[in-house]
Design brief:
Elements: H1 7-16, E1 21-25, E2 30-32, E3 37-39, E4 44-52, E5 62-69, E6 75-80, H2 91-98
């Protein structure tokens, strides 16, 4: 697994390795507005996780996930704040995202 210093570097590195879609959390699934892909937790795998903690500013705390559909046809990244700024998600999605 690579080692990145910033969220921007992680996203660029993942994109260069084929994780080209930008996913968003939609409570109980992840979605991609670019091509209308929608994946439920049982339909994707988290291949890599990068955590970034702000040394002086909690706004800088973020997690970057490298995500691939189970059939391998869809690859992208998801960024998510954690702590106070975390997105509202379903219990199933929380389990999926925290197991890594």
């Amino acid at each position: 697994m690579e080692n990145y210093e910033t969220v921007v570097a992680a996203l660029a590195g993942l994109k260069a390795r084929g994780y080209t879609l930008d996913f968003n959390i939609a409570f109980d699934k992840i979605t991609c507005n670019e091509n209308e892909v929608c994946l439920n937790p049982h339909e994707f795998e988290i291949k890599e996780v990068y955590r970034f903690e702000g040394d002086t500013n909690p706004d800088d705390e973020d997690i970057v996930y490298a995500i691939e559909s189970k059939d391998g046809s869809v690859k992208g990244s998801l960024t998510s704040a954690y702590g106070v700024y975390a997105d509202e998600v379903s219990t199933e999605m929380i389990k999926k995202l925290t197991m890594h």
